[in-house]
Write a structure and sequence with these properties.
The chain is α/β, with parallel strands linked by helices. 33% of the residues lie in helices and 15% in strands. The strands form three sheets. It has a seven-stranded mixed beta sheet with strand order 7-4-3-8-9-11-10, with helices on both faces. Strands 1-5 form a two-stranded antiparallel sheet. The longest helix is centred in the middle third of the chain and has 18 residues.
Length: 344
């Protein structure tokens, strides 16, 4: 048995994670101003639909502008994060801080599931034990927590674990050459004050047939990299069903596989656009066609996006130079992000 103290070198009570403090492929942090600049002022008092929510940074900005915001994503970890930052329900700062104080009294075993599967891979042994032990504690205390408190603590663990992971920003592989160091620090996330979003974890094409909006923002996956596989460690940490894992990367059985990462992507996109009940469609996409990595090449052409949107209304296109996700093995000169707007 080992105590948590060696791994918990810096539990921070004051500094908190904000929603953009994530490593995530396709994050729109730098594109947010351009996205909202493309939306006419007269629509900004209505309902904003973010159907591929990702990090949630676009919806976070929409909450400052629109009267109503709906966010959707297929990942369990993202759903928990949305509920933590801008979900409904009450939470107590006293309860959250008491939880942090209780962490110091916990111990972990090196035979723990999270240590066995991820220790000396994505995390040090001590860090993996700390993360797994905190996850157990959150689940044990769930009956005493409000649903919002549960989501805040779990989202805080997701953010904290991701910061200490030995990766380049995803969990397709871990950094074998880097020294295994204890670096885990548990910090709380900072929930939004006052504003709430409607939160879903559904297939985007199915949800499009159920929800009407004034503005629908579409940011689909670009290539063959399935997000459920890229972030499988965080999904496993969130669901905590402790599935049987396999391979060097320790992945669970495949689930939440998106058609937007397959050859069926153009068909799925056309169906989505035809199903939307909205006044304005905003689509962001990029031009990774010339990537040396086949898995990084786009599944939908820019021309197809524009032609599909034209079936619904008038289309405008703007492009921007935005740095692309890079795992350190490829370069993509002239990379650009595109914003399409379609007035239905």
């Amino acid at each position: 048995m080992s105590d948590f103290t060696s791994a918990m070198s810096d539990i921070v009570l004051n500094r908190r994670y904000t929603i953009e403090n994530r490593r995530y492929i396709g994050s729109k942090v730098r594109l947010v101003p351009n996205i909202f600049a493309a939306i006419p002022e007269e629509l900004k008092s209505g309902h904003f639909l973010d159907i591929f929510g990702g990090t949630g940074v676009v919806s976070a900005q929409a909450l400052q502008i629109f009267k109503r915001v709906t966010i959707n994503d297929h990942l369990y970890s993202n759903e928990i994060i949305y509920k933590a930052f801008f979900g409904k329900g009450r939470f107590s700062e006293t309860t959250l801080n008491r939880f942090i104080e209780e962490i110091h009294n916990l111990c972990y075993s090196e035979s723990h599931y999270f240590v066995r599967e991820f220790g000396n891979r994505y995390f040090s042994i001590a860090d993996a034990g700390t993360i797994g032990g905190i996850r157990d504690m959150i689940e044990m205390q769930r009956p005493k927590l409000t649903e919002r408190e549960y989501c805040i603590l779990l989202a805080s663990l997701i953010y904290s674990a991701d910061r200490s992971a030995r990766t380049v920003g995803h969990y397709e592989a871990f950094l074998r050459s880097a020294p295994v160091k204890n670096s885990f620090n548990f910090r709380l996330v900072k929930p939004f004050g006052g504003r709430h979003a409607d939160i879903y974890r559904e297939d985007a094409n199915s949800l499009a047939k159920q929800v009407s909006s004034d503005v629908a923002y579409i940011d689909p996956p670009y290539n063959s990299r399935q997000y459920s596989r890229f972030y499988h460690v965080l999904e496993t940490l969130t669901k905590w069903t402790k599935p049987k894992l396999s391979g060097v990367a320790r992945k669970p059985p495949t689930e939440n596989s998106s058609d937007y990462c397959k050859q069926a992507a153009p068909t799925a996109f056309a169906d989505l656009i035809s199903s939307l009940n909205t006044s304005l469609i905003v689509v962001s996409y990029n031009n990774t066609y010339e990537s040396k990595s086949g898995s990084s090449q786009n599944k939908i052409s820019l021309e197809f996006i524009q032609d599909t949107l034209k079936t619904r209304g008038r289309v405008k296109v703007k492009s921007f130079e935005i740095g692309h996700f890079n795992a350190g093995k490829s370069s993509l000169p002239n990379h650009r992000e595109y914003i399409f707007t379609c007035k239905v």
